[in-house]
Design brief:
- The chain is an alpha/beta fold and about 450 residues long.
- It has 2 domains: about 150 residues, Orthogonal Bundle (DNAb Helicase, Chain A); about 270 residues, P-loop containing nucleotide triphosphate hydrolases (Rossmann fold, 3-Layer(aba) Sandwich), CATH 3.40.50.300.
- Strands 3-2-4-5-1-6-7-8-9 form a 9-stranded mixed sheet, sandwiched between helices.
- About 35% of the residues are buried.
Amino acid sequence: MNDFTKKDSFSKFGKRFQENICQLMLEDRPFFDQITEVLDINFFEKKYLQIFAQTLINYRDKYNTHPNSEVMMALLRTELNHHDKATATQVREFYARIHTSDGVEEAMYVKDKAIDFCRKQALKGAMLKSAKLLNTSSFDEIEKVIKDALVLGTDNNFGHDFHRDILRRFELVSRNPITTGWPRMDEICKGGLGSSELGVVIAPTGAGKSMVLVHLATRALLEGKTVVYYTLELKDTVVGQRFDCCISDVPLADHRMRKEEILRKIEDVDGTLIIKEYPTKSASVQTLKNHIEKLRKRGIEPDMVLVDYADLLRPTRSTGEKRHELEETYEGLRGLAQTYEIPFWTASQTNRGGLNAEVITMEAISEAFNKCFVADFIFSLSRTVQDKQANKGRLFIAKNRNGPDGLVFDAFVDWSDVTINILDRDESVEKLQSTTDALSILKEKYAQIQAK
C-alpha cells in the first residue's frame, strides 16, 4: 500500500466517524463487503481501530463468513496477544461500547462518506499507476486500470445467501430468448439464445460465417428487436446489402436493379439495426463496450449484439500467445453479454481440418479451444465442394447449455439471397443415414473432448 499523507486518511472526519465505520463494518455485512474492496487500513487514524478492522478482515478471508458477536468476543480475547497491552485494552473497550449501543446514528451518511472517500483514493492510485503505464502499455490497458478502479466499492449485493434467499430459487427466471429463425433449432435451445448468453458459429473460411450471423440478426430484427452488428472484415454498406436481400428475398446480384422493392419491404420492419464497421484488429472488447455505452446515451438500448467476428478483435493486452489472447477476447464478450443482459453472437474460424469436413465438431476450432468453454451455445456449418454445388450444408450442435447437443441437421443454403433453412426431418433423414458411421465417430470424439 502507498504511504498516505494526513489528508489521505479518515482523520479529517474525526474519531467518532472512524469508530462508526468500524461498528458498521461489524454490524452491516453488505457495507463490509462493499468498503473492503477499496479500504486501506491506514485510512484509520487510531491504531486500535486499525486492529479492529483488520481482525474482521482476517476472519472473513480465512473462514469466508462474517463473525457474529460471540465469535467477535472470542477473537478479541485470543487474537490480540501479540499487540501491546494498552492497545489491546483499547480494542476490547471499543467493542464493549459498540456491543451495548443502539447502533450508529446517521448510518447512511457515514457509509456514503466513507465509501466516497475510499473510492476516490482507489481512483487516485489508479491514475498514478496509469501515468507509469503511458510509455509501455496500450490505451486499452490503461483504460482498463482506470475503469477497474471506478467499479470498486460500487456493488452492495453480497451474493445469494443459501438459507436466507431460499425462496428465490423457486422463482421462474426468464431467459428472454431471441429466436434463431429455425424452429427446430429453437426447440432444442429453448426458444433461441437467451439474455447474458454467448453463441458461437463455427465454419471454415468461405463457408458463410458472416451470412449466418446476418440471418440470425435479421430474425431478431423482424421480431422488432434492436440489433447492433459489428463488422471487422467487410464494409458496413456491404453488410447492409446482405440485410436488404435477407429481408426482401432479392438476390444480391439484383440489389441495385430492384431498389424500390427492397425499400418497400424494409419499411415494414419494426426493429432497429445499427451496423458499425471497424478495421480488422483495430477494435477490442473495450471498444465495443464504449460504443454500446454511446448508443445507450442516445436512447438506443440493444436487444442483441453480433460480432463478425471475434477472432478479428484486438486483444485488450498483448500476451505474446495468440491462444491466450483469443480466450481472453471470448471471455470479454461473455462478460459484456452478462453486463448488458442480452445475447451476443459471434463466429469462429476452423482450422484446415474443417475445410471439406462433412460435419465440423469443436475439435476443428482454430487456435484456442478454450473459447468453447465460455460459450453457451455453439453450432457449426459445414459445406463440402459437392454441398456448395447443390446448395446444401450441415449444422452440428456442438454445445448447448439449455438442451441436447451432438445433433446434426441438414440445411438448404443459398447465399445468393442470404438464405439458410434447416430441412424438415423427412428431407434430411436419408442423408443422415448415409453418414451414420462418420457421425458416430465424430460424436465419440466430441464426447471425449467434453469429458476432459
